[in-house]
Amino acid sequence: MAWKNQGGSPWGPGPKGPWGSGPQSQGPKPSDLEDLLRRGQDRIQQLLPGGHMSGMGIALIVIAGIAIWLLSGFFRVQPDELGAVLRFGKHVRTVQPGLNYHLPYPIETVLLPKALRVSTLNIGMTVSDDSGRRGRVVRDVPEESLMLTGDENIVDVDFTVLWRIAPDGVGKFLFNIQNPEGTVKAVAESAMREVIGHSDIQPILTGARNTIESAVHQLMQKTLDSYGAGILIQQVQMQKVDPPQQVIDSFRDVQAARADLERLQNEAQTYANRVVPDARGRAAQVLQQAQGYKEQTVAEAKGQAARFLSVYDEYKKAPEVTRQRIYLETMEHVLGPADKVILDPGSSGQGVVPYLPLNELGRKTTAVPAAPVSQNGASR
């Protein structure tokens, strides 16, 4: 039965709809279903040969409709996309970029998220393009960047998170989370605050950036996996780590003082590394010289003792001979370097001057050679 819009409806008189409210605007009234079907049949009959529809024509129309319906299942996935095929609303498979096919609607449908594109999320700052200056303008967001450290200090942290849809998590990404970017931002800020809250300010400001980035990355991925978000965190990059603006000058003075302290310590260590080995080398040299002197002295003492013992043994065998030899050797040792004048008086002592200036003779012996002495003791 056709629905005639002639002042009534199946739910009662008057221009009312099935929920008791009539149309809100007056406009052209649509044709009813029978008129549409009739007009469609007329147009098809006009296209068919003979002007009337036969069984063969109906079959051709059905076959053509089925072919068009089947061909509607082809679809293309762009290079930065992955195709999520849904069968009656349930995710059944994920297809790669290129030409693919799914069963036509309403059996299967496809969603095409940008799963291969890496997205960038800035936290603690906003980056915008300035057309006037032809550059990028960075504005700080204190409510996101100010964080409390483990030693009860405040630090201003701006960082960037690079993320994408996990290759095996397209279905989770589409159906488990409603606002992916907001979820990643909330998880990133929470993870950074947790890591900063367990760290002291000094390592944060100096050399602990890589450690903090790695810890935040792992904590974010663990949290998102527990949510079943299907999101893969590519990288966490800390852009700026500074004390609050109100005390940044004082912190810079402290950092400069610490840098001077480290520089002086390094210089002192360098000096110690240069002086200590030199002193140790000199000490080792003195010890070696003392050891050599000790060994030389002991060897000489042992040699003298052995010589004395050998002389004593000979002395016991012939005391007079040994005594005479020792006397002669001693006199030779004593009188050898002295200046000497030897006189042979002979039997009568003729030709000998009673007084001789021995001192003068000793001085002249170096310049004038002494006259030979004859056998009788007188000089020629």
TrEMBL record:
Stored SUPFAM superfamilies: Band 7/SPFH domain
Pfam families with a match to the protein in the record: Band_7 (PF01145), HflK_N (PF12221)
InterPro entries to which the protein is assigned, alphabetical: Band7/mec-2_domain, Band_7, Band_7/SPFH_dom_sf, HflK, Membrane_HflK_N
Superkingdom of the source species: Bacteria
Keyword Mitochondrion attached: no
Membrane topology recorded in Swiss-Prot or TrEMBL: Single-pass membrane protein
Low complexity composition-biased segments: 21-30
Residues covered by region (Disordered): 1-34
SMART domains in the cross-refs: PHB (SM00244)
Localization (cell): Membrane
Positions of the Band domain: 72-255
GO molecular function, one term: peptidase activity
Biological process (GO), any one: proteolysis
Keywords (A to Z) from UniProt: Coiled coil, Hydrolase, Membrane, Protease, Transmembrane, Transmembrane helix
Segments forming a coiled coil: 247-274
TM segment ranges: 47-71
Signal sequence extent: none
Subunit organization: HflC and HflK may interact to form a multimeric complex.
Function according to Swiss-Prot or TrEMBL: HflC and HflK could encode or regulate a protease.
Family membership noted in the UniProt record: Belongs to the band 7/mec-2 family. HflK subfamily.
Protein name, entry field: Protein HflK
